[in-house]
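User: Hey, quick favor. My workstation is busy. Could you predict this chain's structure for me?
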Amino acid sequence: MLFSLTSCSFFESTTNNNVTNKVVDVEDFTINDFEDAVEIAIEKAEASVISVTHTEGNMFGSTKSIGSAVVVKCQGKDSQGADTTDNISYYEYLAVTNRHVVVTNRNIITKSLLVYLGNDNTMISAKVIDYSEKEDLALISFTSEIYVPAASFADTTNLKRGSFVVAIGTPYDIVFDGSATFGIISYPLRYIEEEVFVLGGSSFQTCEVAYIQHDAAINSGNSGGGLFNMEGKLLGINTMKITSSSSNVIEGMGFSIPIYTVKEVFKEYLK
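Assistant: No problem, here it is.
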């Protein structure tokens, strides 16, 4: 190890260190320009992010779960339920969220799923049509006469550390629907090994999953919400963060499932 780290060699050699200089002209770039760019990105992205909620309980009380989702497909329907772009009676939607957002405390898919369209202050019944335990993803569907634009997908093949990102979701409670936070890509592709609870069973399976690591603030309820670039395009689905323990204070370690994973898992639906 010492040999490789110190670049020592028993043979004569020459080391060439090439440094590439990149010059960025910021003379005409103002703080207002920067603010405008962030505001425009949020404005483009926010309309496709919705809230997801379900309630479960019994005679002893009930609990309410809150999460987020991103609309990824919107199809106009006529009065007979056929696809159309004219004389639309209602819209049929597909939205992506996390699997853990739509399961009950008994780890089964909820039957009481609702989506909240914050701009119209409307609750609508929804259902889960597919999910992946390994990637912690779920695809939900709902219909509404209200138009919600589908998110545009970003190209995540060339993500760089330091690229600006915006996270949009519903942290903590539905009253905070549409909250936006700002940060950077901390690491474009971070592989993390974790245990995944097998749905409906009592066992775990260990798997390695790729995430986009970022430092845009996310909290409970942001799960299933979107991570967007400065073009307002969807980079990934926020799913978890590393939190503080009793001996360590940890900040700004959030993780998002890349959009290419979402497209691969639900490719039959997103054609």
